[in-house]
Amino acid sequence: MTLKFCCATIILLAEIHNARDSRLYNVVMNWVYLAIAIVSEVVATSALKASAGFTRLYPSILVVGGYALAFYFLSLSLRFIPVGIAYAIWSGVGVVLVCLLGWLVYGQKLDIAAGIGIALIVAGVVVLNAFSTTPSQG
User: Fold this and answer.
1) 103-133 tens-digit pLDDT
2) Is residue 86 part of a domain?
3) Between the CA of residue 14 and those of 10, 21, 25, 80, what are the distances in Å?
């Protein structure tokens, strides 16, 4: 089943790539831009602790560069995705990923209340994506 999924994904990506002028290509690319923005923001936020108040050069460069990339790609995604929806997804997914990295990299633990709060954030993002009729531009 995994091989079938991989093959189907490759075929879909090839179709999207071949149809650069199509609406599907534009839709997919705007969601890819949002994903890149989220990952860049998570990397930058996670590097803040390592920057030690911007006293360490390389982590500080990672923070500034990560936030610059995050805002650039967020601005690209906003050509299609409504700003409220994009920001809700950005912040919801970002919170979950930063908490996960804090746990994996820095050994930070979350209590039950924090876990419930994060679950509610995830639920909010799911509701927005699954049930919102907010129109996209494009």
Assistant:
1) 888 898 888 998 898 899 888 888 877 787 7
2) yes
3) 6, 14, 11, 22
> Domain range spanning residue 42?
34-131
7 domain-assigned: no
DSSP secondary structure of 34-49: HHHHHHHHHHHHHHHH
Q: Is 101 within the bounds of a domain? A: yes
Q: Which two tokens stand for residue 7?
A: 């093959």
Q: Nearest-CA neighbor of 42 among 70, 64, 68?
A: 70
83-87 long-range contacts (CB < 8 A, ≥24 apart) are 84/134, 85/128, 85/129, 85/132, 85/134, 86/34
pTM: 0.76
Lookup: tokens for 69: 């990339």
Residue 34 and residue 17: Cα distance in Å, rounded? 18
**For residue 84, what pLDDT band results from cuts at 50, 70 and 90?**
confident
- Total of domains in the chain: 1
